[in-house]
User: Fold this.
Amino acid sequence: MKFWKHTDINPAHYAIGMWAWALHRATGIVIALYSLAHISVLSTVLFGSGAFDSVMRFLSQPLMLWLELGLLAAIILHGLNGIRIILFDFGIGVRHQKEIFIFNMVVGVFIFIIVFFKALPYLSR
Amino acid sequence: MLEWLLQRLTGAFLLFFLGAHLWALHLAEDGRDIDFQKAAQRLDGPFFQIIYIVLIGLVLYHGLYGLRGIIFDLVTKPGKRIAITWGFTLLGLLAFLVAIRSVMIFMGG
Assistant:
């Protein structure tokens, strides 16, 4: 236990900024991999509109919509924290990095709830 | 240095372009039952054609550059890094070509 007390991985050193970074990286990976898969899936149109439509019908199932909501949450968080990063690049708000992150999370929840209620009728079809 | 800056620029522009994409698909009209017809209708005019082509470029640059950065946290050898960069560049070009070819089908050929 003692040998790693000085390291970053010691939970006593965990900080909000670290979680912001970790969240940004995790959501980034998810969105990047999804984007590649998205291009692949949509390129089924190269095999005709019939193939495309059947793929679209499969992706319209409620389970897929739930997954898409998860993706949306990732996009919202990644985007808002991206704005946070750009602000810091300009030196704006660096002293209040924790408050800005909390603000991002709150705004993110708001946006997500709005879209969630828009999606609700389709989720339980 | 330019690549670092482009990551920020593509990110900022993506906020707009991605927002437009998600809005058009899910909030503007009947948000579900996406099919070939609806997509073709949307891509009938230059507005969405431009938005989609730019969006594809932005996403591929931003996403692949980000993934490359993560891998670079683990790989430090210059030779490997060069190979990885080439890999991502080729992957990006290939994905862009496939995506644009697909968009052209919706545009009518």
Remarks:
- The mean pLDDT of chain B is 90.
- Chain B touches chain A at residues 8, 11-12, 14-15, 18, 22, 26-27, 31-36, 56, 59-60, 63-64, 66-67, 70, 95, 98-99, 101-102, 105-106 (CB under 8 Å).
- The helical segments of chain B are 2-27, 36-42, 46-72, 78-106.
- DSSP finds four helices and no strands in chain B.
